Structures are given as structure tokens and as C-alpha cells.
Input
Amino acid sequence: MKLEINTPVSLFPAISFLLLAYGNRYVAIAGRIRQLAADHTAAGSGRAAQIVTLRKRVGLIRGMQTFAVASMLCCLVSMLLLYLQNGAPGKTVFGLGLVLLIVSLVITLFEIQLSTRALDHQLADVSSA
Output
């Protein structure tokens, strides 16, 4: 397979979009955590479960962002190696970048699952009130 410098370049918009989306998820969770902290004086039993879930989600988002940034770095190194006419190392680093991006997306699936479970709990609280 011939890998041109244009191939790693084509991933830049996707990775940038992912980092933006991950950042937005982080901001939303940070807002929820701040809201829970403000409501802590009137905390009910459901708040403790929400805090545990939010901690897990923050950890997952940290992993998502870490692997996405590592993927972008691999794309940059790959482009540099391809520019320097080092085909095999450039392909290897590009492949590693793709694997890191896949890991980031898999972590995203887990975070989405936690997010929907948290929403289900909140809906259950609202419908029982």
C-alpha cells in the first residue's frame, strides 16, 4: 500500500471535530457537577449515585481526549516521516494513530452508555416525584 502525505492530512478535520465534541461533553459534565455541589446542602440519596457516575464519566472523557490528542500527534509525526521520504516508519506511525483514534472512539461508546443511564435515573426521579 502506498501512503501519501495527503492521507494523514485528511484525518485532521475529524480529529479536531472529535476534540471539540469531547470538550463540549466535558463542559456539560462540569456544569452538572457544579450544580450538584451547589445543591449539596439539600442532597438526597440519588445525588451520591450521580456523583459516582459523573466521576466515571470525567475519567472516560479524559481518556477520550488523551487518545484523540495522541492520534493527532501520530498523524503529525507520520506526515513528517512521509515528507522526509521514510515510507515504512511513516506507515507504522500512521497505523498507530488510527489505532489510538479507534481506542478514543471505543471509550466514547462507554461514556455514552453511562450518560444515557444517568438520564434514565433522572427521568425515573422526575416520574416518581
The radius of gyration is 20 Å. The mean pLDDT is 81. The helical segments are 6-10, 12-38, 45-83, 87-128.
